[in-house]
Amino acid sequence: EYDAVIVGSGPNGLAAAITMAREGLSVLVLEAAFSVGGGTRSAELTLPGFVHDVCSAIHPFYGSSPFFRREPLEKFGLEWIHPPAAMAHPLDDGTAIMLENSIETTSEGLGFDGAAYSKLMRPLAADWAKIAPQILGPFRFPHHPLAMARFGFNAVQSARGLATRFFRGDRARALVAGLAAHSMLDIRRSPTASIALVLAALAHTDGWLLVKSGSGQLARAMATALQSYGGKIETGHKVQSMSDIPSARATLFDLTPRQIVQIAGDTLPGRYRRQLSKYRYGPGVFKIDWALDGPIPFRAEGCGRAATEHVGGTIDEIIQSESEVISGQHPECPFVILAQQSLFDSTRAPEGKHTAWAYCHVPHGSIFDMTGRIEAQVERFAPGFTDRIIRRHVMNPADFQAYNANYIGGDINGGIMDWGQLFTRPTWSLTPYRIPVRGLYVCSSSTPPGGGVHGMCGFRAARTALHDMFNIDIEI
């Protein structure tokens, strides 16, 4: 019998396993695929020598995550790349809005809105060390109530409300809209301002980082960390029922509610099972990876300083794109999140060649081909882009779910993150990681704080299991 078995080896599953193995427990990770990583894998999706990130590509949360601060992966060989700027947002006039690593430089690029941006972001950046642990977990009375109150006053708004309240110009408003659109929600709704503020704060504190040689290296470093503490990993082990799981004092599921019901349904209390069955999933994504004959020829010079690009134009265009997705439509001009890792990492492509990674939001479970619309958006701001495409690889929501069963309908966030599920993931509970069956826990992004490569869902679930089953308490 193991002390703990973790089902699923995404960043949260591995974080849970590392946290428990570090306490001297016997830990086994079961993974259905033949490699660990979940959303942090890399592969030659287009052509030999072109390394693409299958899912996550840019990792803003790494430096702020209490789990990764406790378990730095650099000692296990992980190398990070810090692009000169966090993000560029090209516009039709040939310029780009730059989210720089410093508040001052970002403000300078926003013209007459620069002072307002500085006023908005300086207190948040100054309080970030107090705020980050609070927002990377379930709702609790804050340890630093004044800092959280300052953040919350603006965070509870819609992104459109925040943008129009603080800024008069199109540039600053577009910046806020692009950041908020990562939420996969209608940015006219509360609390989408929170996503914009968090991502901006991460740019100004830790930066938006990428992993040298691909995001798969992050998964490999986590696996190495686990094994250094004596933990074991078994790949190619698909769990379809509780009988597929070896006996353990604690079992943690890095899975979404639908899968937990399928696997453990008969052992779950009826009320809890019904609650999980009502869990809501959000929009899907349509993603393209490109092998390119050269860098993307963005008109705006600043785009060459950032690994991440927000390709979508003005705040009104982004609002229209995201609201159409929420209403079940496929936007003609989608908001595209694009990464050009090979500009800063020569290991990603053969000499003189490049890779790029991009996705847009689409309705849940969509099978519509967005290739042409995404490429038209990039071409709009980078004339000649399509002439540089050597090969493309596309994934629609069905492909994502086939690749990783956690991505139900192409939802990469483990469930929609609106007010109804922001703090009640997967159900309303003061201890959302605990399943009401002794020894069973949820450690996936369907628990607080939700999507993103931070490991905190797994870390917090492991802390709960350690307290309940082993009388071990660890600090954050």
Number of strands: 16
State the helix count. Answer: 17
Strand content: 15-25%
- Terminal Cα span: 28 Å
Rg calculated over all Cα atoms: 21 Å
- Tell me roughly what share of residues is in helical segments: 25-40%
Helix and strand content put the structural class at alpha/beta
Poorly predicted regions are none
Q: What would the principal axes of the Cα set say about the shape?
A: globular
Strand order of the largest sheet: 7-6-12-13-14-11-15
Mean pLDDT: 96
Short characterization:
By secondary structure, the chain is of the alpha/beta class. Helices cover about 35% and strands about 15% of the residues.
Polypeptide structure, described:
- This protein is an alpha/beta fold and 476 residues long.
- 35% of the residues lie in helices and 16% in strands.
- It has helices at 11-21, 66-70, 103-108, 114-126, 128-135, 145-155, 159-166, 170-180, 192-205, 216-228, 257-264, 270-277, 315-326, 371-381, 397-403, 419-422, 456-470, and strands spanning 2-7, 27-31, 42-43, 52-53, 80-81, 85-90, 96-100, 210-211, 232-235, 248-253, 284-292, 306-311, 336-339, 354-362, 389-395, 440-442.
- The strands form 4 sheets. The chain has a 7-stranded mixed beta sheet, sandwiched between helices. It has a 5-stranded parallel beta sheet with strand order 9-2-1-10-16, covered by helices on one side. Strands 3-4 form a two-stranded antiparallel ribbon.
- Helix 1 runs parallel beside helix 10, helix 6 packs across helix 9 and helix 8 runs parallel beside helix 13.
- It is globular, with a radius of gyration of 21 Å.
- The mean pLDDT is 96.
